[in-house]
Design brief:
Layout lengths: L17 E6 L14 H4 L11 E6 L4 E5 L5 H6 L4 E6 L5 H4 L15 E5 L1 H9 L3 H6 L3 E5 L6 E2 L5 E6 L10 E6 L4 E5 L12 H7 L2 E5 L21 H8 L4 H4 L2 E4 L13 H8 L3 E2 L5 E3 L1
């Protein structure tokens, strides 16, 4: 029982499974190394944001799982009650799997932590150092995922990977549908433009109780001098326009996550945040929690 009294996002004694936001920033975090601009200058003193990740907690089994092992994995995992039941990375970009290094012999020396991975991600982790050492030493135990095929994490939690288009240099990219006893959530932190996906995102938003969606950039003016076509995320303003026809109840399900350090929506006093909230959407915050 004492494990459920740990400080952090799992501090309150839980009686049903839940999902909790562990971080909201893009892969490099906020503030970002080397950035001396206004977007980061005020965050070095402790007002920053950890990299995007979701924790799943099942009080009945006394275990938790982490969607995306980020560079902030030690701090994020520490906030969760119970024991680590496994990790589910969405893809092989630095903010989503590199935290696995902390399970290795130089750090935690974990034994047999399940890591669920799509076929290319499975091959990437087992065939490239230093990640293959985690496999060889038994720190992690790779388990295969397949697009659209549900897996059971526990008696009360099921997860389904959904493959999406993205810059897939080393692995596929997926979002995760999480089904609990009474609610369903979607975690989709990275995708190319919505129109590049054959599946209408609106249908997924309507089918869940909460949708954490890619909000990397607020608009096209965010990175002066950069070719935004090389990093084709859906701008938040584009997503809001696309979802505008949805009724208020459906728009309220959308919580933008995975914000780049330049994203003005980080600031709750910004015009960007005001426009998002006025339109009926939300920006994810660390500690946000929904019972499943």
């Amino acid at each position: 029982m004492m494990a459920w009294l740990a400080l952090g996002f799992g501090a309150a004694l839980a009686t049903e499974p839940y999902a909790v936001v562990l971080g909201t920033a893009q892969d490099a975090g906020h503030p970002q190394i080397g950035c001396t601009k206004h977007c980061c200058s005020g965050a070095w003193g402790g007002n920053g944001h950890r990299v995007s990740s979701i924790g799943l907690v099942d009080p009945d089994s006394g275990r938790h799982w982490v969607l995306d092992a980020t560079p902030d994995f030690p701090h994020q995992q520490h906030t969760l009650p119970g024991t680590l039941g496994g990790v589910l990375p969405t893809h092989a970009h630095m903010g989503h799997y590199t935290g696995l290094m902390h399970l290795g012999r130089e750090v935690m020396g974990a034994r047999g932590v399940p890591v669920w991975a799509m076929p290319r991600m499975h091959a990437f982790l087992s065939g490239n150092g230093p990640w293959d050492q985690l496999v060889q030493l038994g720190n992690i135990m790779l388990r295969e995922l397949a697009d659209g095929v549900s897996i059971a994490l526990s008696d009360t939690l099921r997860v389904t990977p959904i493959q999406v288009p993205h810059r897939d240099e080393y692995s596929e990219t997926v979002g995760f549908l999480v089904q609990g006893p009474s609610r369903k959530v979607l975690y989709l932190p990275d995708i190319d433009k919505w129109e590049r996906w054959e599946r209408p995102i609106e249908g997924l938003v309507r089918s869940v109780d909460r949708a954490w969606l890619d909000g990397t950039f607020y608009d096209s003016d965010e990175l002066p001098g950069r070719d935004m076509s090389q990093i084709p995320h859906p701008f938040i303003v584009e997503s809001m326009d696309r979802f505008a026809p949805l009724p208020p109840r459906d728009r309220a399900r959308v919580h933008f996550i995975h914000l780049n350090h330049t994203n003005p929506a980080f600031d709750p006093r910004s015009r960007a945040r005001s426009e998002i909230e006025s339109a009926g959407f939300h920006v994810a915050e660390a500690g946000d929690r929904i019972n499943l």
